[in-house]
Structure formats: C-alpha cells, structure tokens
Task: structure prediction
Amino acid sequence: MKKAQTQQIFIYITAIIVFSLILIYGFNAIKTLSAKTEDVVFIQIEKDMKSSVKSILYDYGSIEKKEISATTQFTKFCIVDTTITPNPSSTAVCNPSSDEYNLLVCDGWQDKSENMFLIGPSKTKSFMIDDIKVTDPPAFLCIPILGGKATIKLEGKGNHVLVSEWGLTDIQKMICEEAENSADRELSCTSGLDIIGKVTKDECCMFEQLCCI
Result:
C-alpha cells in the first residue's frame, strides 16, 4: 500500500515538473515569436518610409498619406528634424522637466544618428531616414498610435520631404474657408494662398473639399 502511494506521489511530482517545463517552454516560445514579429514589423516600417520618401522627394508639391502600422507595444511615432539642433531649455523632448522628455529621442536627435522613433512604455526603436524635415518649430512631431496605426503627411519639396501630421491645422482650415468664400474665389484660392504660404490650394481641396478649382 505504501509502495503504491509512493509511486502515485512520484507520478504527481513528475507530472507537475513536466507541466511546468511545458509552461516555461511555451512562454519563452511565445516571447521569442513576439520579438521576431516586432522586428519584422519594425524593418517593414523603415523600408516603407524609405521607399515613400524616395518616391516623392523630387516631385515638388506632391503629397502622400502615409499610414504607419505598428505593434501594440508602441504608443507614439515621433519624427525629429536633424537639420536643426535642439535646445534643451526650449525643446520639450530634450527637457527633463517636460512630460514629453525622452532621453533616447533627444540623444538620437543631438548626435543626428536617428530621426524616427517608435515609442512605447518600456521600449523605443529608432531609425534614420535621409532628406526629411519637420514642418514647424520645435522641429519635432509626435503622433499617437491608435489601434496600431499612426498617419502622417509626406510632401515633396524638391530637395527634401516635409513631414507633418495628416490633416490641416485650425488656422489652415480658416484660410481655406476665407479663400473659398471670398468675392474672387479663383484668385484667392490660387494667388492668394501662394502669398500666404501656410496652406496650398491642393491641401484645401484634399482635406476640406474647398478651393477645388
């Protein structure tokens, strides 16, 4: 009887050990697979960005809507303008007292080694895309990744590509509306917008369906 009980206990212990090993192996396998998937997604983002920038670099005025698809580990997609040197006191991403402070982004920006960053609570991945600038001071742009996606606007400028958030600002929308509703609509939507320089006729038409001449 005691021998049978001993054998039964041994079987239970062995089963527990085997089950634990399976759990550990399964967890490590899932973790490895997740890391590999993340690497593949990251490489694809970098490859797609390089291709998009190259395709419109010399096509002045050309606009492309670019959708970044990332894994759920990342919450923000940030771009910095490496043609401008950040001032820590006035640049939030390089200011330790700011909520937007990020040491890895700031270091990459200051030494001009990276200009695009996928940022998550526990990790940051970065890469460098040549010939890009960010639209306005403070020369960096961070867009939230919602549902695994972030959308940016690429605009060809002949010798570089301007990167901004997809859509128009409130001021740009107002300019488009004023041009659309002016007494001389055609003149305001062409020459008038060119003089102001903050928004183009094509942008008014694309984003707001205004000035579609």
Q: What stands out?
A: Residues 37-165 form one domain. The first helix runs from residue 2 to 56.
